[in-house]
Model the fold of this input.
Amino acid sequence: MARKTRLTRFALSAVVVAGGLLTGCASDDKSLTYQTDYSDHRPLKVVGYPSAGSLETVQKAVWRLADGDTDGLAALAVDDTQADATARNWVKAFGAAAKEDVTADFYDEGSVRQVVVLYFAKSGQIKEIEARIGEDDSWGLTLAEPDPAEAQAKPTWAPRKPGGSGSRTSGAPSGS
Done:
């Protein structure tokens, strides 16, 4: 009788442990969505020193552009006043180019805000965007370009190729 009880307890313990492992290994929806997005899109090439938050936000923005997902892009806005119009403009201007190789050149040190220049390889387009921490303390984008001409405008200060004007620094003071 004692042996049967031990086997039953052992079997019951094994079921509990296995169930706990399966539950513990399950990804949450946010993580699963990110993993799916990552595997469904071209890798983003990166120059400079992004923070984890700015990198994830910019990567999601490029994915939303490539997918033509204006709602998803607008959802990344830190202020939704002009987010819908801006997202439509960006998707129209850069959506096709985002399906190909894109390099993100990160400027500034990136603790709360980071200017990023996107280089779309095939089309040759260049787009300046800003990733920053919003009022809810999460990273998002400044989407404030409701005018299509403004949304498509090439930044006047950005180099023609990624990494050409100091983005390779970490933000630490230089020795000069």
